[in-house]
Amino acid sequence: MIFGYARTSTHDQQHGLQAQIDELKGQGCERVYSEQVSGTERTRPELTKLLDNLRQGDVLYVTKPDRLARNTQHLLELIELLEHKGCSLVILSMGGTQLDTRNATSKLMLTMLGAIAEFERALMKERQREGIAKAKEQGKYRGRKPTAMAQSQDIQKMKSEGVSVTDIAKKLNISRMSVYRALSE
Fold it and tell me: Measured between alpha carbons, how far is 157 from 132 in angstroms, rounded to an integer?
């Protein structure tokens, strides 16, 4: 069976989502899963359903790699999962080229892209560490401003009003552990 997956980051992108769906159906997708959720979200219910429904021999089509995966590492993990299930992936628009994991050259291209992305990420982290070390030497680096401790008074007040730790964390958009830390200060 041929499946499709379409995603946009926000609900404002309805036309973009519909364009992806149309393109996937034009490629012969018998069933298209779609959702409007940020790519950085850990949970994407429609993608999860799609992956659960794939069976050996199925093909998954996406218009672009960033519609499917959060980053290159995630893309490679998904490809590995698909291969484990006996399925394949077709990316319709990869710099003007269509990549199909049933083809050795496409697999090579995706693996090379993954290696390059991983290398770039390592270089970026290395430069960041060097920059932080230099800023510390010059006395300019103070680190990230602690968000929970800056809201310590609000946390204390809300707790004294009987608001639960979980609700405080949700309202202030911080972790429960941060709330506990602020309360123990």
Answer: 36
Of 9, 34, 38, 93, the active-site residue reads 9
Helix (H, G, I), strand (E, B) or coil at 10: coil
**CA 87/CA 140 separation, integer angstroms:** 52
d(C-alpha 100, C-alpha 106), whole Å: 6
User: Who contacts 113 (Cβ-Cβ below 8 Å, separation ≥6)?
Assistant: 72
Per-residue confidence (pLDDT) for residue 141, from 0 to 100: 85
Whether residue 28 contacts residue 56, with contact meaning beta carbons closer than 8 Å, is answered with: no
Q: Which residues contact 178 (CB under 8 A, 6 or more apart)?
A: 147, 148, 169
Domain annotation for the chain: domains and CATH numbers: 2-115 (3.40.50.1390), 147-184 (1.10.10)
Q: What is the pLDDT of residues 93-149, one digit of tens each?
A: 866 788 898 888 888 887 787 778 778 878 989 999 999 999 999 988 887 777 777
pLDDT at residue number 1: 95
Q: Is 106 noted as a catalytic residue in this protein?
A: no
List residues bridging with 36 in a β-sheet: 8
Contact yes or no for 91/27 (Cβ under 8 A): no
**Residue in the structure block whose two tokens are 């021999």:** 57
Question: Collapsing DSSP states into helix, strand and coil, what is residue 85?
Answer: coil
Q: State the pLDDT at residue 95.
A: 66
